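User: What would this chain look like folded?
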Amino acid sequence: MWLFLGTEIMFFTAFIGSYIVLRLGSNGWPTRYEDTHINVLLGGINTFVLIVSSYCVVVAHEAMAQKSFARARGYLWVTTILAFLFLGIKGIEYKGKIDHDILPGRIPETSSQAMVKVADQLEELVRERFHAYTHADVIKAERPADIIGIAPLVQALPSAERPSSLTDAEFKAFQASSVVDYDLFQQWLDLKQHIVADVSLDSPALTADYLAKREELAEGARLPALKLEEVRERLARLKTSGPLKVKAGDASPEQSGSPEQAAATGDAGQDAVTALNSQMAGLISARVFDPHPMVYGNIFASCYFIMTGFHAIHVIVGMILFGMVLKQGSSLNERWTDWVENSGLYWHFVDLVWIFLFPLLYII
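Assistant: Here's the prediction, encoded as structure tokens.
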């Protein structure tokens, strides 16, 4: 057991040593809660939970030595329950990271990456909304994944004829939602074009007007570049007002969201479109994160998940070891004393590793 624990110590020492080198050698390492969503309180509670569980293992081993097997089982049950509690709290922490998309390879580290991520999340939402039309056969499309090709069909839906497969109420609901969904598409396309052209949202992008303005520029000059703050402001307005009330750079009164199109939805009318627009604002708030570049964010997330993840695996292994003892029930006897002792040593090692991980990841 001691030899095995020696290999485990080397295993985690490699992780911890690598983390320290990366942490000290990376100027601007993310430390703010707003960046990392590291919850010190939950980490502190988990530290207390593991310390108490280690004490319970010591008492359980002492009870085994005294042949008080019922008492030993009781303390091992407490240890196992505390282990479940530890994993539950860790699951809450992981959920917080996942909800904020703080995952390796998914964190923008520059302003341009942050803007691209906003466009990608909007595109994902547009695809999901357009899929509803093709899936319900409201729109017939040869290439359902081609949202640019489907967009004109969505735009024309308020004045289209009802398919025989839908009731009047169902079709009117699709007509009303198409007004909002097409405008969402326009917002995504406009942002995507400005990112590709790298021009300010105040200027046209990838259109005839854009080409004309470029021709007017003096040699060596360029149109104003797109700034992260512009994207933040546009997204904030989308989350507050919805896509209908936020004018895209190349939008015109005749495009979707106009009173004429809303009226074409029949009984659903403007009230239904307005309500759907408010719902879309809430959906954008939930699905599209504010652009927030985090330098070294992906390295941080990789270190966090690999160290806490492997530690959690070791916790599960310890629970299995205790579970094999508890499985004996009232048949538990002195033959399991060495098993409990070795399992206890392993559990103390798991506790000790967390004692190092907690200050490194949560406090320092």
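The two ends are 32 Å apart (CA to CA). If you want, I can go into more detail on any region.
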